[in-house]
TrEMBL record:
Its EC number is 3.1.26.5. Consists of a catalytic RNA component (M1 or rnpB) and a protein subunit. Gene3D superfamilies: 3.30.230.10. One of its GO terms (biological process) is tRNA 5'-leader removal. This is Ribonuclease P protein component. It holds the Pfam family Ribonuclease_P. HAMAP family: RNase_P (MF_00227). It catalyses: Endonucleolytic cleavage of RNA, removing 5'-extranucleotides from tRNA precursor. The lineage of its organism: Bacteria, Bacillati, Bacillota, Bacilli, Bacillales. One of its GO terms (molecular function) is 3'-tRNA processing endoribonuclease activity. Coiled coil: none annotated. Belongs to the RnpA family. The gene is rnpA. It comes from the Bacteria. RNaseP catalyzes the removal of the 5'-leader sequence from pre-tRNA to produce the mature 5'-terminus. It can also cleave other RNA substrates such as 4.5S RNA. The protein component plays an auxiliary but essential role in vivo by binding to the 5'-leader sequence and broadening the substrate specificity of the ribozyme.
Amino acid sequence: MKKEFRVKKNKDFQEAFKNGNSFANRQFVVYSLRKPDQEHFRIGLSVSKKIGNAVTRNQIKRYVRQAFHELENELNQKFDYIIIARKPVAEMGFHEIKSSLIHVLKLSRVLSKHKAGYNEKQ
């Protein structure tokens, strides 16, 4: 994921927590904050040490980034997204993580209609 697609600064995370809308399911909490002056979305990831060791946490982050990369044409581009992973994510594979993210993004109404052929397990 390119640098311009990432939220890195603590100030940006805190702004999303304070002013953004939050939606959650068992696996993820997603904060979305509208940024009208932005050309494309940005994502920030938070995976706690409680979830697993560094290898597990980095794998989860790679899976989430890849899921967002595959969904980028269907996401509302004028938002910052902060994704917080919860404990059940540690035992999930890529397709389960993507399915869970699609579910929570649909709840937050930032995901346009997803491809009809995709089989969701939520």
